[in-house]
Amino acid sequence: QMNLVESGGGSVQAGGSLRLSCTGSQLFASSHCMGWFRQAPGREREGVAAIYVGGATSWYADSVKGRFTISRDNEKVILYLQMNNLKPEDTATYYCAAECDRWPPPPFDYKYWGQGTQVTVSS
């Protein structure tokens, strides 16, 4: 089991920043593909960002390019999502995910994901 646990969500005003973190088991440490997806009430799951092979390759959704940064601390085995210049449309539950078969990974392609952390952006 990956035992993925997200943290760092919260409520911010538009233009603010948050950093999400995700930890997991040793199996998570060996994962070649990790990422974040989000889901808001009444909306489809949306891939946000993904990282491959220890950080050699990354992908971002067009809606977050230039504002979000995905990174991985290989020593501590933590996956991060730095979110800057947040917008109300970024409001959603954010999920850390791992193990994908395709690149970039469609949001439903991940084999493991956590319980999610809520991000709320007010205007």
Mean pLDDT: 93
- Beta strand count: 11
Proportion of residues in helical segments: under 10%
Helix/strand structural class: mainly beta
What is the rounded distance between the termini?
39 Å
What percentage of the residues does DSSP assign to strands (E)? over 45%
Q: Return the string of H and E elements.
A: EEEHEEEEEEEE
Alpha carbon gyration radius: 13 Å
Ranges with pLDDT <50 over ≥5 residues?
A: none
Question: Number of helical runs?
Answer: 1
Q: Which sheet architecture does the biggest sheet show?
A: 7 strands, mixed
- Shape estimate: globular
Describe this structure in words.
It is built from 1 helix and 11 strands. The chain is mostly beta strands and 123 residues long. Strands 2, 4, 5, 6, 9, 10 and 11 form a 7-stranded mixed beta sheet that branches. A 4-stranded antiparallel beta sheet has the order 1-3-8-7, with no helix packed on it. A hairpin with a 4-residue loop joins strand 7 and strand 8. The longest helix is centred in the first third of the chain and has 4 residues.
Features of the shown structure:
123 residues, mainly beta, 7-stranded mixed sheet, 4-stranded antiparallel sheet
Quick synopsis:
The chain has one helix spanning 26-29, and strands spanning 5-7, 10-13, 18-23, 33-39, 46-52, 57-60, 68-73, 78-83, 92-98, 112-113, 117-122. It has 123 residues and is mainly beta.
Topology (elements, then pairings):
Elements: E1 5-7, E2 10-13, E3 18-23, H1 26-29, E4 33-39, E5 46-52, E6 57-60, E7 68-73, E8 78-83, E9 92-98, E10 112-113, E11 117-122
Parallel strand pairs: 2-11
Antiparallel strand pairs: 1-3, 3-8, 4-5, 4-9, 5-6, 7-8, 9-10, 9-11
